[in-house]
Amino acid sequence: MPHTIVDLLDRAAQANHTDQFRLGSLISLPARGSLIAAGDIHGHRRNFERLLAFADLDNNPDRHIVLQEIIHGGPTDSEMGCLSYELLFDVARYKLNYPDRVHIIMGNHDIAFISNSEVIKDSREMNRSMRLALARRFADDSPQIEQAMSRFLLSQPLAVRCDNRIWLSHSLPGDRYLDKFDHQVIHRKLEAGDCEKLGSAYLLTWGRNITEAALDKIAQLFDVDIFILGHQPQPQGWAKLGKNCIIIASDHSHGCLLPINLAESCTVDRLVESIVPLASIS
Q: What is the pTM assigned to this prediction?
């Protein structure tokens, strides 16, 4: 079984790299079809199932789905070890089933796992919690699985840019570090060093409390009009940030998704009207 999982993750990593819409670390989607945008999932299996049901990719061949931050949260084992790696394996299978329509973007918890740095959630250091759970389940094979998980996470793109000028990423560089961010990182293959503290992938996924002036500057940098982000907790499932940004959360009972028509121009207000509570999906 461990070898099967390693093979699964490596094949899914290859599918990430060979996604037909990918160039460097950016997914570029054309002006046709639709997209379902999810916020952070953090091991919430029921919301993941609702996202898949709503997206219904089998019956919507021009539809894409963007997922983010699968790990760290959700069910635990008998010793409170994080079991979100199980959902990560299922997301890898989903990617393999729809290799050019399922896009999993890099989150800060992914960065923390790749770089083996601390990340706290619900008063637990989540990497330690998940690695202990992996060790209890896979024993001596757990290091191989951890390494395959890191390869899969590092293979994820940083962002999605749609032809209708919508940008999706986990976060954006905070004001303090904007001048240190190398925006060319989106045009090349990621390296482990990009995930170290203050590396460009790190800065793109960890930013918080971004001012409207910074949003305007980044919009010019990436030549976009609207940002769809995750990362910042939203108790009601979503929030509007400034005039050109929406934050979505999908990791709790008030979580949401955002459908986007890729074939037409959008405004933030129209997108807000389209937000769907995940609890409304059977």
A: 0.97
Determine the Cα angle at 192 with ends 186 and 194, to 5°: 45
Closest to 231 (Cα-Cα) out of 245, 246, 214, 249: 249
CA distance 273 to 183: 31
Chain-centroid distance of CA 262 in Å reads: 19
Split at pLDDT 50, 70, 90, the class of 209 is confident
Find out whether 196 and 115 touch, Cβ atoms under 8 Å. yes
Q: Distance (Å, rounded) from C-alpha 184 to C-alpha 100? A: 23
Q: What is the pLDDT of residue 165?
A: 98
* Identity of residue 88: L
Sketch the domain layout of the chain as residue ranges. Answer: 2-280
Superfamily of domain covering 2-280: Metallo-dependent phosphatases (3.60.21.10)
